[in-house]
């Protein structure tokens, strides 16, 4: 794993935006599109706000969600709500191809299959160019929660958590999908995550973050 340490969460967000912009330009030049999945969180939203200012062919960029809470449309718990707030008033709102997880569906299992279909259709292979990940103080990443059955899913790209986490059931990308990504970008900030960051870097299989492939992965942090 490539490790980049910065002085603050703001610098992490800035450097991440620049790195993603460079990767997007390279992928668009080589194959005509860029497929990107984003997780939620304060630093990622700052990153996305900075990325929105980059001069990119946004109509050739396809943005997916890594995970989402099962909550009503427009609810503050939803990552999509926060994402739209970040992008409100920017040119990305009309030019960027955004694929929301359909967590208000009456059949959430079907919604998982449909989202997998969107990924396969827009990548051609099911392999995303970039997946951004964060990590919780308990070692979870995406909505792959310690002890939840979703961590054992092997034959689905998108799945539901078995139990609510912090009050909400989740829809999430699974280990098989995440681990086949062309690139993985970790943004990890916040002192409460120091212990788990060390365990993740040591590939500790007792925490979900430790099960993510470190091949083709970049870590940007202010903790080391």
The unreliable regions are: none
Number of helices: 7
Total domain units: 1
| Number of separate strands | 10
Computed over alpha carbons, the radius of gyration is 16 Å
- Average pLDDT over all residues: 96
EC number: 3.1.1.31
Family: Belongs to the glucosamine/galactosamine-6-phosphate isomerase family. 6-phosphogluconolactonase subfamily.
Function: Hydrolysis of 6-phosphogluconolactone to 6-phosphogluconate.
Keywords: Hydrolase
Q: What can you see in these coordinates?
A:
It holds the Pfam family Glucosamine_iso. Belongs to the glucosamine/galactosamine-6-phosphate isomerase family. 6-phosphogluconolactonase subfamily. Residues 8-216 form the Glucosamine/galactosamine-6-phosphate isomerase domain. Keywords: Hydrolase. Its EC number is 3.1.1.31. There is one protein chain. By secondary structure, this protein is an alpha/beta fold. The protein has one domain (8-178, 199-208): Rossmann fold (3-Layer(aba) Sandwich), CATH 3.40.50. It is 33% helix and 18% strand. The protein is built from seven helices and ten strands. The chain has helices at 9-31, 42-51, 79-87, 92-95, 108-123, 175-179, 194-201; strands spanning 2-5, 34-38, 61-65, 67-69, 97-99, 130-133, 158-160, 170-173, 184-188, 217-221. The strands form two sheets. Strands 1-10-9-6-2-3-5 form a seven-stranded parallel β-sheet, with helices on both faces. A three-stranded antiparallel β-sheet has the order 4-8-7. Helix 1 (9-31) packs across helix 2 and helix 2 (42-51) packs parallel to helix 3 (79-87). The protein is globular and about 40 Å long. The model has no long low-confidence stretch (mean pLDDT 96).
């Amino acid at each position: 794993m490539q490790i980049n340490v910065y002085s603050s969460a703001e610098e992490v967000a800035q450097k991440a935006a620049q790195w993603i912009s460079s990767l997007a330009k390279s992928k668009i030049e080589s194959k005509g599109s860029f497929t990107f999945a984003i997780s939620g969180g304060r630093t990622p939203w700052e990153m996305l706000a900075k990325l929105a200012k980059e001069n990119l062919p946004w109509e050739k960029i396809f943005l997916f969600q890594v995970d989402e809470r099962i909550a009503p449309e427009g609810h503050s718990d939803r990552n999509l709500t926060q994402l739209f707030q970040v992008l409100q008033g920017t040119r990305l709102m009309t030019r960027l191809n955004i694929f929301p997880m359909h967590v208000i569906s009456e059949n959430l299992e079907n919604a998982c299959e449909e989202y997998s279909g969107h990924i396969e259709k827009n990548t051609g292979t099911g392999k995303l160019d970039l997946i951004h990940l964060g990590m919780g103080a308990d070692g979870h990443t995406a909505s792959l929660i310690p002890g939840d059955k979703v961590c054992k899913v092997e034959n689905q790209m998108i799945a539901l958590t078995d139990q609510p986490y912090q009050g909400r059931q989740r829809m999430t990308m699974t280990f098989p999908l995440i681990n086949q990504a062309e690139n993985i970008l970790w943004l990890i900030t916040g002192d409460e995550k120091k212990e788990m960051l060390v365990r993740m870097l040591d590939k500790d299989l007792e925490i979900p973050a430790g099960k993510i492939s470190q091949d083709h992965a970049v870590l940007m942090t202010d903790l080391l």
